[in-house]
């Protein structure tokens, strides 16, 4: 049964990426705005969660305002983090994403249509140019989502944070909102086979952490503050402080 569900999920991922990707591209060329393509992204996330039999419980929506731009910083356990955030975070935002994803046919063009920003981590000069572009978007009222760990965790535990996203926060001077994603590792680990395990993902949105007035010398303290805020809503086996469920 799990194998059949997994095959259905992968079939859905392929066709939903093509259909919603083309729709996002078309809507961008018609409207020249990113808002409508983003709705295609939200539907894409919800459809793929449904196809995998995964539900998402969201807590802490009262901590964010729709009128304010934020930098959302989330831990990264699984592919399903992307589906969960896209499908269940009810605000307009853009991703800061690794450049390789933009080379995938249809998906890459759709990401550009959504206003997502590629970052080349192998080229320091290009990476800083991307961060400057992202900071400008945030200052102009557009929220950005980042994964400070940079890549999915191999064992589900919270990893060390890279500095790029925090450079973005300091450049934009806008608040960072910590997002704790719990349970997605059990759905589809980075290394654990191809089968999907239906289940529940907890998405907990923390209170905004101010960055106004902070400077480069404050970056390390900011990293520690955000990391601890994410840990507060993760279980011990995920590198957090909550007890594991029995």
From TrEMBL:
Coiled-coil regions listed in the entry: none
Keyword terms: Acyltransferase, Lipid biosynthesis, Lipid metabolism, Membrane, Phospholipid biosynthesis, Phospholipid metabolism, Transferase, Transmembrane, Transmembrane helix
Enzyme class label: transferase
Pfam families per UniProt: Acyltransferase
Residue ranges occupied by any Phospholipid/glycerol acyltransferase domain in the UniProt entry: 70-184
A GO term, aspect molecular function: 1-acylglycerol-3-phosphate O-acyltransferase activity
Enzyme Commission designation: 2.3.1.51
GO biological process assignments: phosphatidic acid biosynthetic process
GO CC, any one term: membrane
Origin: domain of life: Bacteria
InterPro entries membership: AGP_acyltrans, Plipid/glycerol_acylTrfase
Pathway stated in the Swiss-Prot or TrEMBL entry: Phospholipid metabolism; CDP-diacylglycerol biosynthesis; CDP-diacylglycerol from sn-glycerol 3-phosphate: step 2/3; Lipid metabolism
Reactions catalysed, as given in the entry: a 1-acyl-sn-glycero-3-phosphate + an acyl-CoA = a 1,2-diacyl-sn-glycero-3-phosphate + CoA
Listed transmembrane segments: 7-30
PANTHER family, per the entry: 1-ACYL-SN-GLYCEROL-3-PHOSPHATE ACYLTRANSFERASE, PHOSPHOLIPID_GLYCEROL ACYLTRANSFERASE DOMAIN-CONTAINING PROTEIN
Family membership: Belongs to the 1-acyl-sn-glycerol-3-phosphate acyltransferase family.
Domain note: The HXXXXD motif is essential for acyltransferase activity and may constitute the binding site for the phosphate moiety of the glycerol-3-phosphate.
Name of the molecule in the record: 1-acyl-sn-glycerol-3-phosphate acyltransferase
Species name: Desulforhabdus amnigena
Organism placement in taxonomy: Bacteria, Pseudomonadati, Thermodesulfobacteriota, Syntrophobacteria, Syntrophobacterales
């Amino acid at each position: 049964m799990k194998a059949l569900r997994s095959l259905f999920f992968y079939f859905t991922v392929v066709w939903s990426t093509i259909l919603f990707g083309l729709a996002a591209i078309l809507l961008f060329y018609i409207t020249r705005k990113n808002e409508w393509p983003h709705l295609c992204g939200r539907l894409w996330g919800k459809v793929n969660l449904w196809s995998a039999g995964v539900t998402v419980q969201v807590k802490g929506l009262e901590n964010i305002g729709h009128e304010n731009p934020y930098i959302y910083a989330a831990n990264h356990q699984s592919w399903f983090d992307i589906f969960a955030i896209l499908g269940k975070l009810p605000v307009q935002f853009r991703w800061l994403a690794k450049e390789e994803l933009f080379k995938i046919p249809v998906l890459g063009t759709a990401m550009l249509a959504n206003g997502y920003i590629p970052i080349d981590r192998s080229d320091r000069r290009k990476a800083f140019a991307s961060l400057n572009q992202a900071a400008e978007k945030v200052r102009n009222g557009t929220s950005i989502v980042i994964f400070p760990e940079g890549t999915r965790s191999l064992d589900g535990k919270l990893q060390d944070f890279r500095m790029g996203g925090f450079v973005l926060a300091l450049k934009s001077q806008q608040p960072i909102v910590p997002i704790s994603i719990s349970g997605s590792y059990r759905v589809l680990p980075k290394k654990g086979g191809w089968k999907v395990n239906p289940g529940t993902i907890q998405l907990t949105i923390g209170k905004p952490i101010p960055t106004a007035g902070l400077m480069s010398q404050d970056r390390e303290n900011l990293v520690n503050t955000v990391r601890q805020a994410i840990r507060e809503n993760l279980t011990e086996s995920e590198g957090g402080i909550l007890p594991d469920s029995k």
